[in-house]
Amino acid sequence: MRKLLIVFGVIMLIFGVGIYAMTNVTIDYAFVPDNEDIREAEKRTKIASMSNDVEMGTPEQIELGRKLFYEETFGNEVFFSDILGMFNGPLTLGNIGKAILKLNGEGTNNLQVEAYEDFSAGDINIKKGELFDTGLDVAKGAKTPVGFKVVFDEGSLKAGVSCAACHATVDSKGKIMEGVPNTDLQIGLSLAMGTNTAAYFTHTELEDIKRYISQHSMEVDTSDGTKASLPDTEKFEKFVDAEIIKWPAGSNDTTIDLHNNPVQIPDAMTNGDRPFGWSGQGQIGPFNGISAAINNAHSQNMDAVSASEISKYTLKIDKEVYLGSILQNAANPKYRYDGKSSQKPSDFFAKVDPTPGVPGVNRLTKSPTYPKTSYMTSVGVLSSSAGYKVYEQLDAMSAYMNSLSPVPSGIQKNNEKAEKGERVFTKAGCISCHAGRFATSNKLIPVEELKTNGSRAKGFSGLKSYHDVPKVYEEGTKVPLPENPKSKIIHTTPEQEQLLRLAWGFTETKGAYKTISLYNLSRSAPYLHDGGVSVGANGEIGVTETILQGKLPDPYQSLKAMVDSRLREKVIESNTANNDLSTVNVTGKGHSFWVDETTGFSESEQDALIHYLLTITD
Asked: Which of 20, 429, 584, 606 could lock onto 260 through a cystine, CB 3.0 to 4.6 A?
């Protein structure tokens, strides 16, 4: 069966929909690796077995979670393909297929694809036929990129993405490293290449949507019976493209707050690394908050339509204007609101909604607090598919992620140097925040103390006025939900509530960031939440000279910039001189804890510390 699906996948990718135009079949395929496709697969549960204080899940849960991690999109191919039109412009599924064929069965951690047409956004210009980096990973022998699901449905070819697209990567031999962040994935570029990137407008520095109204703008009836104009499609698309294209490779904006806040992709090795999310918003519920964090990514970030019920309260944008702005230039005519009839955008969408009964186009379920948000869901809904129990899929992926172990660094470890580095680690005070089995205190550090860019830390603050007490459905509740499903409140202690309010930006402070585990540093450069601490192997300084030039940051040199005050100063200077980076809050500032001559440490001690950190799990 697997070989048959692979053949279908190749045919669909290369030859497109013409072959199947007269059929009514539905076909989907995503690459799920076997053990021989994975690097260090036998170590998958080594770290997990060491822990007694973290929910681990059953072997059956872990195996289901692993499968879902690679292939579950919750239907986001509708949003990315039919609405945003990611594959209708310079980046096409056909050309992705051709690029994979050119690999001749070899793997790659950066699939180069031929542009189907000219592309221009911001300072980026790509000519038709020119090869460009996608950062998509292809395992040796695979026919589709890792975390890429191809679907042929309703007579058209579509694609969506799963967790693995961002949280797995391929090594030099074409083996998959599970849970390792895809640090060169070109999310911003891929989105900007869509024909309706305007559907992602909530991730931009949008001061006032009315600024994009022109004489060509469409008028709609609003929820309160008045009239309002939608933004001009051409002007709005150009603005959003120019905003999204600024995201450095390996980063993504994960909040819908009308601010451009890309954060670097974290690893998916969650065991011991709570709270979850850069601001630590995932703290309660199943698996100590991992399931809530996963839900945020799938229900919000991969389906902008899902926020339609809360846009009035959290974005100050009427539901009809919000929906109309997203759908008026949808790639698939089925979802394109043309305004020719007197119906509102919401009435139009109700007729074409692939998942009626819940906002959005993904497979979602109303949460117990719907339509209000809670600490369990930032949009009031839960990612879940019919035939499963509520939370079953999210919990399975949580169990799988908790089972993952760090992949060896590949660095020749010098035990004497590592031991010296550990002593420096203690002497310098690093251990005060990064102690214990997983090298983290599991605490939130206020922005005022870290002195880093606080924009992302307040990313959920707009939800404060539309927030409810967190609740979960009773265990065993099935999807679709029965009538009047039973739920229960998640009771929190005063201390938990204080930490949650800090993490969600519900306080008068600047918010906070989590104390991350120091595992996986050899494979997670650049550093800090904004990915701003980036130095190349040949001394290239800052994101401008590394990532924006297609050069991967060097873990050793980038870690040196984390602890060396003079080098960091140069990194910050380089980043802030780049206007695009400044406007998307990528600076590399903060976490000013130095291990250099200013604090009495020698170059030898600094070198030993970095070696220790890079090989800490080897």
From this structure: 584
